[in-house]
Fold this sequence. Notes:
Elements: H1 3-15, H2 22-33, H3 42-47, H4 49-83, H5 85-97, H6 101-114
Helix pairs in contact: 1-4, 2-4, 5-6
Amino acid sequence: MDIKGEVDKLMRKIRRGRIPSSETIVKETFEELGFTPDVLKHEDIQQNFNKLLSEVFIKTLEVLERYEDRAYARHLIDELMTLRSEDLQKAQEIVKKAKNLDQGFKEAVRILFEK
């Protein structure tokens, strides 16, 4: 599997159990916007539907991104390094043996992205 496929698989694995359900995301969105039944009446929704829908959509993405940022930042790199540990060891050896550090680093990075 190439690195793109590996990252996609890892992202799905990381999301599982770390990012709440859509229902939870939307509930949090409504709470943050202050859209509660006692504040937002049926008539208000009908009159301002498109505006409210746009606000909810944008805020929902923001809430989701907060969860994704935390999940990916904390887990993606570690998972990828575990998955590709042999390749990382090879890359480290190339850098150690290189007479020119920049060239060794470039070669090591190529190894990680070629598979």
